[in-house]
Amino acid sequence: MTPDPAVSDPAHTYFRSELPLTVTTTLPEQALTFHQCLPAYAPTPLVSAPHLAAALGVQAAWVKDEANRLGLPAYKILGASWAAYRELERLFGPFTLWTTLDELAAQLQTHLPICL
């Protein structure tokens, strides 16, 4: 088998079709519902990246702008907040339906102080 130059040259490898696809784009619906209840939640904006598109030789490229996620300059707050909530739910749940952090905090009052 003749090696594909695009695969053998890491500088030009964008997708290796011979490898199994292990990334999924599905997220539990409850995670999205949780994040939508957080103050200042908004979908991540997409920003046009024409220089990236030109470098890749494609018509258009878009990147997620994670410069301001829930008031913090990082996307990691989504995962951290979801992990903290899941741990609280494991330790003190199940919680009744809540739509604000104040409502969730009220359900945790009997467990204070909390240390995760």
In short:
The protein is built from five helices and two strands, in the order ααβαβαα.
Please specify the SSE layout and strand pairing.
Layout lengths: L4 H4 L20 H8 L9 E3 L1 H7 L5 E3 L11 H17 L8 H8 L8
The first-to-last residue Cα distance is 54 Å
Shape: elongated
* Main β sheet profile: 2 strands, antiparallel
Secondary structure class reads: mainly alpha
Question: What is the spatial order of strands in the main beta sheet?
Answer: 1-2
Give the helix tally: 5
**Structural domain count:** 1
Mean pLDDT: 80
- Poorly predicted ranges: 3-7
How does this model look, in words?
There is one protein chain. This protein is mainly alpha-helical. It has one domain (27-109). Helix content is 38%, strand content 5%. The protein contains five helices and two strands; from the N terminus they run ααβαβαα. The chain has helices at residues 5-8, 29-36, 50-56, 76-92, 101-108; strands spanning 46-48, 62-64. The chain has a two-stranded antiparallel ribbon with strand order 1-2. The longest helix has 17 residues, at 76-92. It is elongated and about 60 Å long.
